Amino acid sequence: MNRRGISPLVGTVVVIVITLLLASMFAAGATQMADFDRERDQVGDLTDDRGAGGWNDSYRSELIWARDDDPDENTVHVVNYTIATGADAAGNSLNSVVVEYPDGSASVTGVDEREDIETVGIDEDRDGDIEVDATDDVECCPPDDGVKVSDGGNTITIELSGNYNLEGGDALIVEFEEVDNPDGAGDYAVTVGINGDETDSGTLEIDND
Asked: What architecture (CATH level 2) is domain 63-206?
């Protein structure tokens, strides 16, 4: 009789364990989403405040933009990624930057060597002036250097040696040439990732004017 009573008991215990696991996973996911929302709010506050030292018009505050924003132009794209206080990247070394364009928009097929990375810099007070030049930290050398293009020319990965640190409030500025703008005018959602664990989304604006 005792052996027959074990199976329902085990089943009940298993159900309870599964319920607790699901509840903990949901709580963890909710916490991560809340942290992400707070991080986005912090980034918004930081990008609204461009620092006390003025603003260098060579760099804009948008997450990503093209120096020549005409359709079908081969040009330089600029990333301006703000590191939020408490973000995963804050206090850690800069190891990688990944820029993902939507399929059928800009192409980074031509960005195939280290020399195409014009600038990797840290703007510590977000005033448009680079205080720390980390361009020399892009890994080399060919054929396995720190510049990789994937997804049919939609994604570029820039890998660095990790000799420079990022801090909360920094703006990471990255410029790379030989990018082909989309054929048509419009707004294109672009995702930028830092160190493989932190991402932000912005809009690449292509104009007919």
From this structure: Sandwich (2.60)
- Distance, in Å, from the CA atom of 94 to the CA atom of 147, rounded to the nearest integer, reads 15
Beta strands in 22-168 (DSSP E): 64-66, 74-82, 96-100, 117-123, 132-133, 147-150, 155-159
CB 194 within 8 A of CB 97: yes
Q: Give every CB contact of residue 172 below 8 A, 6+ residues apart in sequence.
A: 79, 80, 81, 82, 83, 94, 97, 120, 121, 122, 123, 166, 194
**pLDDT tens across the length of the chain (209 residues):** 455 555 677 777 777 878 877 776 765 555 554 444 445 555 555 555 555 445 566 888 899 999 999 999 999 999 999 999 889 999 999 999 999 999 989 999 999 889 999 999 999 999 989 999 999 999 987 666 899 999 999 999 999 999 999 999 999 999 999 999 999 999 999 999 999 988 999 999 999 76
Phi first, then psi: give them for residue 74, nearest 5 degrees: -90, 120
Cα dihedral sign for 42, 44, 47, 53?
negative
pTM over 0.90: no
* Burial bucket for residue 8 (CB in 10 Å: 0-12, 13-18, 19+): exposed
Q: Which of 194, 89, 102 is nearest to 152 (CA)?
A: 102
Dig out the tokens for 72 from the structure: 């079908």
SS3 23: helix
